[in-house]
Amino acid sequence: MKILGGAYKGRNFYMPAGIRPTQNVLRAAIFDLLGHSLSGLSFLELFAGSGAVSLEAVSRGASTVVMVEFNDLNAKTIQENCELLGIELGRDFSLVHAEAMTTIKRLSEEKRRFDIVFFDPPYGQKLAKKTLKLIGSRDILHAQSLVLVQCETTEKLEVPENFEVLTQRRYGSSYLTLLQQVTVKKAE
To answer: Which of 29, 118, 126, 169 is spaced 20 to 30 Å from 35 by Cα?
Structure first.
């Protein structure tokens, strides 16, 4: 696999065996939706797999990137990919080797906020709906933060009231749904 844009454009990275990677067409679509420059933005990727989307975010100028991956082999591959590209893991670019739901709760407790959250959970487990609901109930977003969900077309994504769907597009057996956090008006 290769980085598609930004400072690391054309550079190769590793893909662990046994995962469903975010293919080039989908990665290109992700950054078409988010914008090609993420300069100065904070980015959170849950269920990071190889870290492909996060590596792309770093390449496109994101100032803070947090990659969350539970699987040992995948987390090791993310570390190797960062070393391969010369991305130093530390304060600005970090790998959290933990379960996604637990990490969302911990980030909320630490009062961490992100401009963009991307997640592509394993298919067949109905995790997209559960993850979006947890993100909506935890305070990890800014007022106008974007959430981009990749899920299988068979999963019905229920949108919490504090999100607005900006667009939803189908790519083969996947949907990409871009949402924005909105302020919910209280009934008077």
So the answer is: 126
* 3-class state of residue 178 by DSSP: strand
Over residues 93-112, the mean pLDDT reads 97
Query: Residue 63 corresponds to which tokens in the numbers above?
Result: 């100032």
pLDDT at res. 95: 97
DSSP of 112-153: --EEEEEE-PPTTS-HHHHHHHHHHHSS-EEEEEEEEEEEET
The answer to whether 46 touches 118, Cβ cutoff 8 Å, is yes
Radius of gyration of the chain (CA): 16
Unique residue bearing structure tokens 């057996």: 173
Percent of the chain at pLDDT exceeding 70:
96
By 3-state DSSP, what share of the chain in percent is helix, strand and coil, each rounded to 5? 30, 25, 45
Q: What is the pLDDT of residues 22-45, one digit of tens each?
A: 677 888 999 999 988 899 999 999
Where do we find the tokens 């570390």? 79
CATH fold label, 24-181: Rossmann fold (3.40.50)
